[in-house]
Amino acid sequence: MMIVLVLLPLTLVLVGIAVWAFFWAVGDGQFDDMDSPAYRILLDDDDDWSTPADQNKTTQHEHPPEKQSAGDDTPAGAPPREPRQ
Asked: Quick count: other Cβ atoms within 10 Å of Cβ 65?
């Protein structure tokens, strides 16, 4: 029964912090625009903010994937397996 005397005030403090955090978030504008982020995913990515020079830098460092032969089951880029005996 003594645990109730500890848990009840602790619960009230935690609820008070949660209520304060909610009202702080509302006052700070966290809930002002709830619809735009959901629609932003549907927009095209035509508005690329990088310059052509930045795009050339990224493509220069990329290597084309290695081709696999038809009977080879090792992943691309992995060292070849030793033949089975």
From this structure: 8
In degrees and rounded to multiples of 5, residue 47 shows phi and psi of -85, 80
Alpha-carbon 22 to chain mean position: 24
Cα distance between residue 6 and residue 14, in whole Å? 13
pLDDT digits (tens, 9 = 90+) for 33-67: 888 878 888 887 766 565 556 556 555 555 555 55
Which three-class secondary structure state does DSSP give residue 45? coil
Residue where the block lists tokens 């089975």: 84
Helix (H, G, I), strand (E, B) or coil at 49: coil
What predicted TM-score, i.e. pTM, was given to this entire model? 0.42
